[in-house]
Design brief:
about 160 residues, 2 domains, seven-stranded antiparallel beta sheet, 4 helices, about 45% helix, about 20% strand, globular
Length: about 160
């Protein structure tokens, strides 16, 4: 379990630019986050109005964002606006620990569901696992009224402090 979250954070950190991060804010309810930059692409999950995501690139009419799985996902530009944002530290360690433990649990849940749906197709299993991970972790972020960019801070602290034990 700890290895998966370490891999997830490493992927996220490796893909993050060192300087000049840009963000977008969702301005419409239930903005669809997709697997690829196309309205016919697989729906990963829905972002809620006010969610903030790190902007990686613009791809036509689509914003490319990085999600919790380390994968790039896409949201249509009509659903968002570019946004000035600074990742704040959460003062409540109990909340950070709770969220970290919930992240671990949904990683296990995603693995079980992906194994059940695609037990013999490793490529579909991995893709589905990552889709579920992104969906489940965004739900946790939203349930706690947090923003997605705090994810890497919470995860790195949780690993450092061994909150999974």
């Amino acid at each position: 379990m700890e290895r998966k979250i370490i891999l997830s954070i490493i992927l996220t950190l490796v893909l993050l630019p060192i300087l000049g991060q840009s963000y977008i804010q969702v301005i419409k309810s239930d903005a669809i986050i997709r697997f690829a930059p196309s309205s016919s692409s697989t729906e990963i999950t829905k972002a809620k109005e006010g969610n903030v995501f790190e902007l990686k690139n613009e791809n036509g009419d689509w914003y490319e964002i990085i999600m919790f799985s380390g994968e790039y996902r896409y949201i249509h530009q009509t659903m968002c606006k570019k946004y000035e944002y600074s990742v704040d530290s959460l003062n409540n360690e109990s909340l950070r620990k709770t969220v970290f433990i919930e992240f671990l649990k949904v990683e296990d849940k995603a693995t079980v569901e992906a194994d059940r749906k695609y037990p013999y197709d490793i490529f579909k299993n991995i893709d589905y696992n990552r889709i579920l991970t992104d969906k489940f972790k965004l739900n946790i972020i939203n349930d706690h009224n947090l923003q997605p960019p705090v994810y890497s801070k919470i995860v790195s602290e949780g690993i450092r402090k061994k909150w999974d034990r």
